[in-house]
Write a structure and sequence with these properties.
The complex is a heterodimer. Chain A is mostly beta strands. Chain A contains no helices and ten strands. In chain A, a hairpin with a 5-residue loop joins β4 and β5. By secondary structure, chain B is an all-beta fold. Classes of the chains: A mainly beta, B mainly beta.
Chain lengths: 116, 107
């Protein structure tokens, strides 16, 4: 059974940092692109970033470029999202998802709240 | 960036009905389109990828079609568990973009 489990969310002040983790199991993790998607309270889904199988290709939505960094450790079957210079508008549930083109699996999400 | 426009934004239907949700891309996206279902307080669930390929475990009451810029999600024989918000997504080009969502409510 495919499982994605996010962790690392929490309450952080504006300008602060967090590192989100997503642990994968039940599929050949190193063979797939991985994504991060977020959802602000009461809003729709927003794609944030993705990364290819060996980490050599990374893409970001404009609003997080230069502040967020996606990375992965294939030995640990994990993908990460480093969130720096956080703003109130980054408050959201962050989901990791597997490769969309073959039918994405989703984690349960982790809540990031940016507030003073 | 490719804009994805869903219609309608909300839809009321009855149990047993057949509904169709439309998604239009601002430019051609080939077959790089997926559909997701989300219930309140839950993670999204993948329904369809590649325009019409059904995710494993998803019932055949869900179907997708379309090409180029215009796509549809059809749900037949609506059941109470189908009332949710539905999103389309294009993965033809980065940034990947979602539609704004269609909320399917019970009439």
């Amino acid at each position: 059974e495919v499982q994605l489990v996010e962790s690392g969310g929490g309450l952080v002040q504006p300008g602060g940092s967090l590192r989100l983790s997503c642990a994968a199991s039940g599929f050949s993790f190193s063979s797939y692109w991985m994504n991060w998607v977020r959802q602000a309270p009461g809003e729709g889904l927003e794609w944030v970033a993705n990364m290819n199988q060996d980490g050599s290709v990374k893409n970001y939505v404009d609003s997080v470029k230069g502040r967020f960094t996606i990375s992965r450790d294939n030995a640990k079957n994990s993908v990460y999202l480093q969130l720096n210079s956080l703003r109130a508008e980054d408050t959201a549930v962050y989901f990791c998802t597997s490769q969309i083109s073959v039918g994405a699996s989703w984690g349960q999400g982790t809540l990031v709240t940016v507030s003073a | 960036d490719i804009q994805m426009t869903q219609s309608p934004s909300s839809l009321s239907a009855s149990v047993g009905d057949r509904v169709t949700i439309t998604c239009r891309a601002s430019q051609g996206i080939g077959n790089y389109l997926a559909w997701f279902q989300q219930k309140p307080g839950k993670a999204p669930r993948s329904l369809i990828y590649g325009v019409s390929s059904l995710q494993s475990g998803v019932p055949s009451k869900f179907s997708g079609s379309g090409s180029g810029t215009d796509f549809t999600l059809t749900i037949t024989s609506l059941q109470p568990e189908d009332f949710a918000t539905y999103y389309c997504l294009q993965y033809y080009a980065n940034p990947v973009t979602f539609g704004q969502g269609t909320k399917l409510e019970i009439k």
